[in-house]
């Protein structure tokens, strides 16, 4: 599990390419993200002071648009510092959701990874200047804001693993259910994936589909007057199902077992036709819960 991101950022304010602004301001307010600014390669000691065995080092750069049509280049090493496929997916997914073209080790390869007494993963992120600068090389605020939002979501995807996100979802389910009409009306919320929730181990499930299935098939998802099945997992062969039941009145989540896996899976599949998982422009679950909590 990654619990710290160390940013290796070239302080490029003199060149006006603003990668320091993109990567650093997207991390504001989160003490788990530690930017290290420098004007040359003399900051290795500063980076080493920030690294831990559970850190990810993000080597942050940009490249000229004439070099490649790739929007975001992810560089990885082939040694001890190589991130696993799942971690690379967490890095790339927020950019792909927004329509950016992502390349792995193209047009650049590898990542900065100073040796330490322990191993840790490192990844380079090179962003195409055309994704956030205008034709005159000046900051395009609209494009830059979109890219910065993707970077911010990437941080969240790295630091908040599936089990943690799933726990947040379970604990906040009454809030989500009370706001289901608002969620259905906002494609950014309705199409967002509930990370960790898969039907038959492979079908991704959206928040809108889960809420729709519960609304349309109350007999399958209700437990007593106040209980709702907010998450379930089971054996497709036997139908045996372990359910997480949220009490809509108290918010307490309990575990129940029954044999309704197939029926619930069919209901979710049907709801997914209306609210499929979207790969572009959706909000992370933590952001949705935050917006609903503060009324934003």
Characteristic terms for this protein:
296 residues; 12 strands; six-stranded mixed β-sheet; alpha/beta
Structural class: alpha/beta
Strands ordered across the widest β-sheet: 2-1-3-6-4-5
Which percent range fits the helix content?
25-40%
How far is the N terminus from the C terminus?
Answer: 30 Å
The H-and-E topology, N to C, reads as EHEHEEHEEHHHHHEEHHEEEEHH
Which spans have pLDDT < 50 for at least 5 consecutive residues?
A: none
Portion in beta strands: 15-25%
What is the count of helical runs?
A: 12
The 3D shape can be described as elongated
Strand element count:
12
Mean of all residue-level pLDDT scores: 88
Largest sheet: 6 strands, mixed
Instruction: Return Rg in Å.
Output: 21 Å
Written account of the structure:
It is a single chain. With 296 residues, the protein is α/β, with parallel strands linked by helices. It is built from 12 helices and 12 strands. The chain has helices at residues 19-25, 44-50, 85-97, 141-159, 162-171, 173-178, 180-185, 187-190, 207-216, 218-221, 261-274, 285-294; strands spanning 4-10, 33-38, 55-63, 72-75, 102-104, 122-128, 193-199, 203-206, 222-223, 227-234, 241-247, 253-258. The strands form 3 sheets. A 6-stranded mixed beta sheet has the order 2-1-3-6-4-5, with helices on both faces. The chain has a 4-stranded antiparallel beta sheet with strand order 9-10-11-12. Strands 7-8 form a two-stranded antiparallel ribbon. A hairpin with a 6-residue loop joins strand 10 and strand 11. It is elongated and about 65 Å long. The two termini are 30 Å apart. The mean pLDDT is 88.
